[in-house]
Amino acid sequence: MKFSNRLENLLEERNLTQRKLSTELHIAPSTLNGYLRKNREPDFETLIKISKYFNVSTDYILGVTNIRNPYIHGECHDDKEEELLGTYRELMPKEQDYLIKQAHIYHHQDLDSLYPLKK
Fold first, then answer.
1. The three-state (H, E, C) secondary structure of 38-80, written as one string
2. By the 8 A CB rule, do 27 and 18 touch?
3. Cβ neighbours for 70, distance < 8 A, ≥ 6 positions apart
4. Entry pTM
5. Which residues contact 28 (CB under 8 A, 6 or more apart)?
6. Cα dihedral sign, 90-92-95-101
7. Which uninterrupted H or E stretch holds 93?
8. Which strand (E) or helix (H) includes residue 8?
9. CA distance 7 to 13
């Protein structure tokens, strides 16, 4: 996926207008429009501003990876946590929300009734 497509998707996900984003990033609306129309590319400073604004990596925004927020290896406490975090970060935002809801449901269930102890 190209930069312009990623940027357009991020705008849609947040229900942002081009005008709002250009104001937030302090860039001209025509400049942002050029990014979306594929006839202009951001400089490094602007690319970093955009990635920080959307909380995604520059690699994600450029289409190098589908992982939105790569993490530093060793940040997790164990392999299972690292696997779960990696899976979460590869999901689209809507899927991430579903996973979080599922985890909350699982966390608040009476686990003893699900997995009774054998005596």
1. CCCCCCHHHHHHHHHHHCCCHHHHHCCCCCCCCCCCCCCCCHH
2. no
3. 57, 59, 89
4. 0.59
5. 22
6. positive
7. helix 93-108
8. helix 3-13
9. 10
Who contacts 73 (Cβ-Cβ below 8 Å, separation ≥6)?
A: 82
Q: How far apart are CA 76 and CA 45, in angstroms?
A: 30
Question: Considering only CA atoms, which of 93, 70, 71 is closest in space to residue 6?
Answer: 93
Which amino acid, one-letter code, is at 83? E
- pLDDT, tens digit, 9 for 90 and up, residues 1-44: 689 999 999 999 999 999 999 999 999 999 999 999 988 999 99
Reading the block at residue 61, the tokens are: 């925004």
The pLDDT tens digits of the residues spanning 39-55 come to: 899 999 999 999 999 98
Structure tokens, 103: 């985890």
The label of the residue with tokens 């025509």 reads 30
Buried b (16+ CB within 10 A) or exposed e, 11-38: beeeeeebeebbeebebeeeebebbbee
Distance CA 78, CA 54 (A): 28
